[in-house]
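Example record used in the benchmark description.
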Amino acid sequence: MPESRIVVAGAGVTGLTTALLLSRNSGYNISVVAKHMPGDYDIEYASPWAGANYLPVSCKGTPAAEHDRNTWPELEKLAAHHPDAGVHFQETAVYNRQKDLDSVTGDWFAELLSHDPWFKDTLPNFKSLAKDDLPVGFDYGMCFTSVCINTAIYLPWLVSQCLKAGVVFKRGIFKHISDAADAHHSGQKADLIINCTGLAAGKLGGVEDKAMVPARAQIVLVRNDPGVMCSTSGTEEGEDECCYIMQRAAGGGTILGGCYQKGNWDSGVDYDLANRIMQRAIDVCPALTGGKGIQHLSIIRHGVGLRPVRNGGVRLEKENIGGVWVVHNYGHGGYGYQSSYGCSQVAVKLVKEALVEH
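Model output (structure tokens):
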């Protein structure tokens, strides 16, 4: 049986994970073609700016929850057995306020605000926090063991795993999704395209998904050690602001965030917001500075990214466009890493179905 030629459009965590899972089938000849690749830092390229961690926000009983559930075993395996991937275990605390349930951040965090989250049976060492274990101003919370990912290591690691399996990487820019069919490294037309273009799917010809919208994120990367990974459901300083603290693996520094500014395309750093982010972080986690002020945070850099949010959720489906099958896998918002394997597993099934119909 001849090989099927596949082009994966996009080299963020979703595109790379999809390519990796596809590469385990020797019948696929895969090109990953993208404007941005690991090592690039650009406002159009969300994956390098992510924390990244595993804090499931998907609501119980939804396909998104299943994607997250199916991703955990893979990330757990990487943290336990593949230190070269840049993923490590972190003891994690989530602090919630009842009044945030109907806020912007409450809608974003969703299941993290539940008193009975589905992931209590998935993540190790889960327990509810006693009132005495909560910072001042918070009503309830939980703790568990999770993972934090050093994206500067993990994205190149995914590339290296793909390269070992024979995947070819190329730079390319598409005006129309159908153009990707002509970008296969063989010089022949691809049999199938996988659309992992993230926020660009909103303007890409042949897709032009009006449900795509940015949710601006801003972080401060510091050298300080927090001793714990934690997040809060909201703040007193705006309903689209919160606090999250996560230490990346292998000396990658500690991410302090953040905000969820839906519809905001601004790529510039808001230094007033940065100061609020840092102050909230040391208030919630005094260990960052030994109880001292924000001047004792050792800043590596400030960062701004645009989460590729899709109103209505991730698009995971197949479609015939111009006589070529396209499998869509985009719109993962702020949960691209923690849903990466689960969504890619679905995409692989859709590829198999589409190629049968080819």
